[in-house]
Design a protein that fits this description.
This protein is an alpha+beta fold. It has 14 helices and 29 strands. Helix 6 runs antiparallel to helix 8.
């Protein structure tokens, strides 16, 4: 037995000498964890450091790490952990949690309270401690240099932070700082990354349901080689004062010379309930009352069953049975959206309301659009196209999952996009700003999706309503073109049969008002207006602007003619954009919005320009500007058709908030 233990010890030391440490705890069960003081592991795998007043608790990885090889320089390492601090009394903190690097995992002289159960008045600030601490502190300790409570700090050999900051994280969306309360009772994620070559220590904090922020909360230069010893222990410490507080660690991972494994929140143990469990009061009734209630319950159940059948009745014709996999039941959508309650309402548009929901069977989040329709000639063709569009697969298109019909309603079901529509970030967030890098990536993504619709699928798909409000953003802020309620399909090599003018003013190509015939070129025109909208941070038509700036394409064209095209860039960006990319988008937007369809590029050419695979063609400033201004402002001899096909600035301004749609969703052929 002794020889086996000796062999195990030698193998551990050999592994440690090579510096190949890598472990992960998705909950704790006592393996290689050394506990001290009040620390314990709960039945469901939580590591509980303290849960009462005047306590101290330590939990360390029981195997020492050889952190400094023969050359004596501390190696790089990465630490991830999830913690929660749950005070018994709201908003009352008591020290907090510390991640500790120490030559020992035992601290016999450590005192409770502000000493973390590690130090005492005699050894505080002693350089012989060789201890480094990253603290998540919830108490104000003026005696030891803490200037505020609820902060994150880096301490060396004591309790004076060499660097600290209020608990917060930086948003990946706009870079703004978001405050956090360490004693909220909610789990939070911490990343600690040390670069041994550059002597750089980064500490990052965020709520558990968000990805790792790109910008750390603390970033400082510190040479741990001059502080820690060759062999160290790593773990957690906590202590309380007069207020009872529970300090939990839910998960923990570590890796030397690499990135620690990520902790999946779904696979971590659950925190205990806050507050006492409500007790059910039993009502004692006599037998006659029970019989009466039972009888009434049966009558009520029968009535509810009949009512539910009427409530969830839906239109289902024989020809729809072939579309079974794409047909949702009204009951499922009603339950998914909690009865289409206003709390689930995502937005209201010209075609109906959109609700957020979760399908009970698959737990998939969806967006459900309710559209009015008349079940008459043409609805069969429309449903056929809806099902065909459900087979589209592209990373920059919102997936159309299926449909449902009930009475005079058509319900379209889409994948849910958590960040909503692009126009909200361009126009409705005065305190936050969408950075240029995000905007340019969104433009390229939408262009890629349109190329797929026009040329790369089995049929040609005309979207017919491209605009910022129909571009949705997924969890990673990628642009996805959605709302295919007006889309039409036709075979490659044939002409589209659409004869109704649909879409939104400001995005309509001039020829649409004359012929009513949508083509890939009319989609390109709308995409040009969309590009200018994103780059300039302005809607295509803005009646509130000065007379010369009502129509965006005219204003950008005039800036180009004057040689100051960058003056059209969104003023909220300041100078924080790539000049070449901004010029490319503005000029390409004008080219795509050319009044003459033959002058517009195809979406394949647009992608080549955006990817830098082909140079943007040089256009005559005078010819393009004159064409745009002539269409918008003049009425010269021989231009009647052109004039009638492109409303004046005043006409468009009056109708700028309107969307044109077909009288009914009847296929539009």
């Amino acid at each position: 037995m002794f020889s086996k233990l000796l062999m195990w010890f030698l193998l551990m030391r050999l592994a440690a000498s090579e510096g190949d440490y890598d472990f992960i705890y998705k909950g704790f069960h006592g393996d290689n964890i050394s506990l001290d003081g009040s620390a314990k592991i709960t039945s469901n795998g939580l590591l509980l450091l303290t849960n009462s007043s005047s306590q101290k608790g330590h939990a360390f990885y029981s195997i020492p790490l050889h952190i400094k090889p023969s050359h004596g320089k501390t190696q790089s390492f990465s630490v991830n952990f999830v913690f929660a601090i749950m005070p018994q009394y709201p908003n009352v903190g008591s020290t907090g949690i510390a991640f500790v690097i120490s030559p020992s995992k035992e601290f016999p002289g450590g005192e409770v309270g502000q000493y973390w159960g590690i130090f005492n008045p005699k050894n505080i600030r002693n350089s012989s401690n060789h201890i480094a601490i990253i603290e998540l502190d919830t108490a104000l300790d003026q005696d030891f240099g803490d200037i505020n409570e609820n902060h994150v700090g880096v301490d060396i050999n004591g309790l004076v932070s060499i660097e600290s900051a209020p608990a917060a994280y930086f948003s990946n969306m706009d870079g703004s700082s978001k405050n956090l309360s360490l004693i909220s009772g909610e789990p939070m994620y911490v990343w600690i990354d040390y670069n041994g070559f550059q002597n750089q220590l980064n500490v990052t904090l965020s709520p558990i349901d968000l990805p790792k922020p790109e910008r750390p909360l603390l970033s400082l230069m510190v040479n741990l080689s001059s502080i820690v010893l060759d062999d160290v222990y790593i773990g957690f410490a906590s202590s309380t004062r007069t207020s009872p507080v529970s300090h939990y660690i839910l998960g923990w991972s570590f890796k030397m010379n690499g990135q620690a494994q990520a902790l999946d929140p779904l696979h971590l143990p659950k925190l205990p309930r806050i507050g006492p469990k409500k007790k059910l009061k039993l009502l004692i009734v006599g037998l006659p009352v029970i019989v009466l209630i039972f009888t009434l319950a049966i009558i009520l159940a029968v009535g509810l069953t009949v009512r539910r059948k009427i409530k969830f009745a839906q239109v289902l014709e024989d020809w729809e049975r072939e579309y079974g996999p794409h047909r949702f039941s009204y009951k499922d959508l009603f339950m998914a959206t909690k009865g289409f309650t206003d709390k689930k309402l995502l937005g209201v548009g010209g075609f109906g309301k959109v609700y957020r929901g979760v399908l009970s069977t698959s737990k998939i989040e969806v967006a459900v659009k309710r559209v009015s329709h008349e079940s008459r000639q043409g609805i069969r063709e429309f449903i056929s196209e809806i099902v065909s569009l459900g087979r589209l697969r592209h990373r920059n298109l919102v997936q159309l999952l299926g449909y449902c019909r009930r009475k005079r309603e058509l319900l379209l079901v889409y994948d849910f996009m958590p960040n909503g529509s692009l126009d909200k970030f361009l126009f409705d967030h005065p305190k936050s700003m969408l950075r240029w890098g995000h905007r340019f990536r969104i433009i390229k993504g939408v262009a890629s999706g349109l190329l797929y619709l026009h040329e790369e699928w089995g049929q040609v798909v005309l979207h017919r309503d491209i605009k910022a409000s129909n571009v949705l953003l997924d969890s990673e802020m990628n642009g996805r073109l959605g709302d295919f309620g007006l889309a039409r399909l036709y075979d490659h090599g044939t002409d589209p049969r659409t004869t109704h003018m649909v879409g939104t003013f400001g995005y309509l190509a001039p020829e649409l008002t004359r012929t009513g015939k949508a083509t890939t070129s009319t989609d390109v025109f709308a995409f040009g207006a969309f590009m200018l909208e994103v780059a300039c941070g302005r809607r295509p038509i803005d009646p509130q602007s000065s007379v010369d700036e009502v129509i965006l394409v005219e204003w950008v064209s005039e800036c180009w003619r004057r040689g100051t095209i960058l003056a059209a860039a969104d003023s909220k960006l300041g100078l924080n954009y790539e000049v070449e990319e901004m010029e490319l988008v503005l000029k390409l937007g004008l080219l795509c919005s050319h009044p003459f369809s033959a002058a517009r590029p195809s979406m394949r050419q647009v992608m080549q320009f955006l990817d830098g695979d082909a140079p943007l063609p040089e256009l005559s400033l005078d010819r393009l500007g004159a064409a745009i201004l002539a269409v918008g402002h003049t009425h010269t001899e021989g231009s009647d058709d052109l004039r009638s096909s492109y409303p004046s600035s005043l006409e468009l301004a009056i109708a700028s908030t309107s969307s044109i749609q077909e009288p009914v969703l009847s296929g539009g052929h």
